[in-house]
Design brief:
heterodimer, A: D-Maltodextrin-Binding Protein, domain 2, 12 strands, B: MetI-like fold, two-stranded antiparallel ribbon, 14 helices
Chain lengths: 442, 322
């Protein structure tokens, strides 16, 4: 169809009429206003969009080179940047009908609800996207309304990064993978000294971890952040217990006061990098980028688990593996087969895996993960071991967030701040949280 | 869709005058003059209609709808406006932050600009270099780099807390404390006095030297000359700067966006009005709600600008009005 249009256009161009010249002049006059709009119309271009750090940008650009060499004549346009503002830009592109063909999506709920992302089930059934070696439970969590809209572009879990140098200097043992929240608090306190904190706080001014720790904590109490029908999945008691746990650590000087935590605008400015804290909670997929910013050796530990000092196993084990990020296809992608080929390429191609390594976390295909594990750095080895430990221990599934999940996460972040800056009591903060969360979720 | 319109309309507008020109007998002279006028205005007119007036009117419609950018808008009447004032504590916080900012940053900026303009309105060697140096901050002003610099200066181990520490004030981090974060942005705005300063300088140059000479002969000192000549003669320029400042500072966005990572934090203490519009519209997909906020901001700015104009009768002196 596209070819036919091309021919018609060529025919038009052959006859230079007054009308075509005027229209052309008009288009030329308007073109500076439209910079950034892609006019690419032929089938041999594809737009790929992602967020990440420099390390991921470099590896993804190399990945594109490889994909282009396997598809002669194809030109992939990369669009990349940092995380802040990424989703806002992407949503706007979708609203303007100008979104990329293949992309990472941070907050897919609204886009899926509006039918803007492609369901991949047909491509999987046809063998065009091979998911036979990918983690079944993680694939399951990416389903919305029974349909598979994405495949994981890497696996990760919530984790703590540990600054081994500080542990060594303080003669404190690196904790076991099976540590409890009580043990975590004890380690944090024993590493603290004036102006230095054992651990970073569980919230940060920017970023997306305000619900990650709570989610683990809730699962140990057989609760979830959200119920399957999109309501808040826990009560005031759990939230009070959670805020109190952190408030006590803050008052003991084991985690930093509000104005230190609020300085973190991304992991680049996190307290473990600025030399203010020894433990740092975040998603495990940033391991190599984080290690690149410090000379101190880092290792990875899963989120603490257990209620009080009681360790938990099986159904009650709190930590869980999820996809660090997923790859989606635009429902209006120009060449959906080509887009699906790219998704399959990043998921299963051994040469692609050798380039990507752990740039997006542990490869989703177990076969590929084993293949590249010998090539990776010590911190990444530690990350792989942590993700494997969590995968082996977690048995309860992940309840997907409703489409306003990210908004509730922002609310949780402000609630943490209200307590940390002592602007409101824990009791008031808890009741305000449930009020406003109710409004957001309608 | 907008793309299609914009690429064809200039051509379409370009066609009509040439058609009327094809029938010279029926065209009277003034009319054809006008036609050519409109022809030359066309690029700007089309820009105004397509990119300003059009979207503005659409946003008025959207402000009465529930619109998530991706699906067609649903009419909800005045619901957005009611929610803003009855059920949204963050909106009231955004109003508080913005008004505090406008009523401190705008006057302080003008005061600073005027003081510097007075200082730089002298004839000494290299004066143009000094003027350039003081103008530079406002060139850098809205940029990302400056917002990051501010984070460094007012951060935990920043220059400000180190200097204060030297005097025994063991402060915390200014940018990340809800009590002080907004004030660092006020200081940032005041620091960008350059463009107002240039306009003041131009105004000062316009004041006839005879007035000062006459006053000096009558025995007026420096202070008297400032109060009775400089200031009254400068009021039209002060008025102009004031109106610009009001409009600009109501629309402040970039510094807060960068310094707070797009969230208006810590604890909504830098949640500027426009930043909240952005969060609701582009982060939370509530474009109808954001449009309602936009229209209220338009009305607020309109009212304050009108107040400035109404009050100008009483304090602005124009040369020709006497």
């Amino acid at each position: 169809m596209a070819k036919q249009e091309d021919q018609e256009m060529a025919g038009e161009a052959g006859r230079l009429t007054r009308r075509t010249i005027l229209v052309g002049a008009g288009a030329l006059a308007a073109s500076p206003l439209l910079s950034g709009v892609s006019f690419a119309q032929d089938a041999t271009t594809m737009r790929l969009s992602w967020w990440g750090s420099d390390d991921r940008h470099k590896k993804t650009l190399a990945l594109i080179q490889l994909f282009q060499s396997k598809h002669p004549g194809l030109s992939v346009t990369p669009e990349y940047g940092g995380f802040v503002g990424y989703q806002d830009k992407l949503s706007t592109e979708f609203a303007g009908g100008n979104a990329p063909d293949v992309m990472q999506v941070a907050d897919p709920g609204a886009l899926i609800a509006a039918g803007r992302l492609l369901a991949l089930d047909d491509y999987i059934a046809a063998g065009k996207i091979d998911v036979s070696n990918a983690s079944k439970s993680v694939l399951e969590t990416a389903k919305v309304g029974g349909k598979q809209y994405s495949v994981p572009w890497g696996l990760a879990c919530g984790c703590y990064f540990l600054d081994n140098q500080v542990f060594e200097d303080a003669k404190v043992d690196i904790p076991d993978y099976g540590w409890t929240w009580d043990e975590y608090a004890k380690v944090a306190k024993s590493l603290s000294k004036p102006g230095f904190y054992g651990s970073a706080d569980i919230w940060a001014a920017a970023g997306t971890r305000a619900l990650a720790g709570l989610e683990v904590f809730l699962r140990e109490r057989q609760k979830y952040a959200f119920t399957p029908d999109g309501k808040i999945g826990f009560g005031p008691d759990e939230l009070t217990e959670w805020f109190t746990f952190w408030d006590e650590l803050r008052k003991a000087g084991a985690v930093p006061p509000g104005e230190v935590t609020a300085l973190e605008t991304g992991f680049e400015t996190s307290p473990i990098i600025t030399g203010k804290a020894a433990m740092y909670p975040i998603n495990s997929s940033i391991a190599s980028s984080l290690q690149g910013l410090t000379k101190h050796k880092l290792t990875v530990a899963p989120f603490p688990t257990g209620v009080g000092s009681t360790a938990l196993k099986g159904d009650q084990y709190g930590a869980f593996v999820n996809s660090s990020m997923q790859v989606y296809i635009n429902a209006d992608a120009k060449d959906k087969d080509l887009a699906a080929a790219f998704v399959n390429f990043v998921l299963n191609d051994p040469d692609a895996a050798k380039i990507q390594l752990m740039a997006r976390g542990v490869p989703a295909s177990s076969k590929i993960a084993e293949l590249v594990t010998p090539d990776i750095s010590p911190v990444e080895q530690s990350m792989v071991a942590t993700v494997k430990y969590v995968a082996d221990h977690a048995s309860a599934g992940f309840v997907p967030w409703p489409k306003q999940g990210a908004e509730v996460q922002d609310l949780m972040q402000r609630s943490h701040q209200a307590v940390a800056f002592e602007q409101a009591s824990i009791a008031d903060t808890v009741s305000q949280f449930f009020d406003q969360a109710g409004q957001i979720l309608g | 869709m907008t793309i299609g319109h914009s690429s064809e309309s200039p051509a379409a507008t370009g066609l009509s005058p040439s058609r009327s020109g094809a029938r010279p007998a029926r065209t009277r002279k003034p009319l054809s003059d006008n036609a050519y006028g409109y022809l030359f205005l066309a690029p700007w007119l089309v820009g105004l209609l397509v990119f300003l007036a059009g979207p503005t009117l659409v946003s008025l419609y959207l402000s009465f709808t529930d619109f998530n950018l991706l699906q067609p808008p649903k009419w909800v009447g005045a619901q957005n406006y009611i929610t803003l004032f009855s059920r949204d504590p963050r909106y009231l916080q955004a109003l508080r932050v913005t008004f505090t900012y406008v009523f401190t940053a705008a006057p302080l900026n003008l005061l600073f600009a005027l003081l510097l303009a007075l200082l730089l309105n002298t004839r000494i060697r290299g004066i143009s270099l000094y003027r350039a140096v003081y103008y530079v901050p406002s060139l850098l002003g809205g940029s990302v780099a400056i917002a990051i610099l501010w984070q460094q200066i007012f951060g935990l181990d920043g220059v400000v807390s180190q200097i204060l520490g030297f005097f025994g004030v063991h402060g915390s981090s200014w940018v990340s404390s809800p009590k002080q974060a907004l004030w660092t942005l006020v200081i940032l705005h005041v620091w960008q006095f350059g463009s107002a300063m240039i306009i003041f300088l131009a105004g000062l140059k316009q004041i006839p030297a005879e007035l000062y000479e006459a006053a000096t002969i009558d025995g007026a000192g420096k202070v008297h000359r400032f109060w009775f000549i400089t200031l009254p003669m400068l009021t039209p320029v002060i008025f102009f700067n004031l109106v610009l400042q009001i409009i600009n500072s109501f629309q402040a966005f970039t510094p807060a966006f960068i310094i707070s990572g797009g969230k208006g934090g810590p604890l909504d203490s830098t949640l500027f009005y426009t930043l909240y519009v952005y969060i609701q519209g582009f982060t939370n997909f509530r474009m109808g709600y954001a449009s309602a906020m936009g229209w209220i901001l338009l009305i607020i700015i309109g009212v304050f600008t009108a107040l400035a104009f109404l009050s100008s009768k009483y304090w602005v002196h124009y040369d020709d009005a006497r």
